[in-house]
Amino acid sequence: MNITNSTGILDTINSRRSINNFNSTKTITEAKINELIRYTTKAPTAFNVQNWHFVAVHTSEQKTKLKNLAYGQQKVEDAAVTFIVSGLLEPQNLIKHSLDSSLKDNVLSQEMVDGWINAVSNMYSDNPILQRDEAIRSASLAAMTMMLSAEAMGMVSCPLIGFDPNGVKEAFSLPELAVPAMLITVGFEADGNWPQKPRIDNTEVLTIV
Ligand SMILES: Cc1cc2nc3c(=O)[nH]c(=O)nc-3n(C[C@H](O)[C@H](O)[C@H](O)COP(=O)(O)O)c2cc1C
User: Does the keyword Oxidoreductase apply (predicted)?
Assistant: First the structure.
């Protein structure tokens, strides 16, 4: 099969790196933040439940507050914006609202919507481990979509797990049901970053059956 790269997505995947040194003089507008989140929320979620939440931290006072909760990682202060990317627990209480517009726009029938609401309720209501798995899955798919979208918009990024999730949840008044999964710094590159890091060969990570 001949795979063409008509949209440039493969170039973006091939060239993305996690950036450590950001240009601290460059900012982005709230309009750009909104544009980035519109691309980010094109990521898939189970049953289209969209169990995610984002905080865009971009003022210097709030960035310093977040840096202190991210073990002093300087990129949180230097990047134009850092997103707190969370997944939400209890998808059974979100699904009806999440599917409202699909019903209204006739993308899904009432019968299909009712079936999905039932399925989500049956699958997740008594299963806190699956709720947490789904929160992390949805947030992770959003985070990757955000990083690739940022690249396509001419920016760079870095995912971070080095932060205090309980401290961040409290300091930034995240919803009760939020599980902060990752921080994503987004902005513009300064000098002195690593080149792209090589990957383990397919022969070690891939089984084809
Ligand atoms: C879940 C996750 C957490 C990470 N946490 C941090 C972090 O706290 N600080 C940091 O500098 N890099 C962090 N990274 C970046 C990784 O070190 C980086 O993705 C990895 O070395 C591969 O490099 P690349 O993204 O440039 O290909 C994290 C990456 C992921 C996926």
Answer: yes
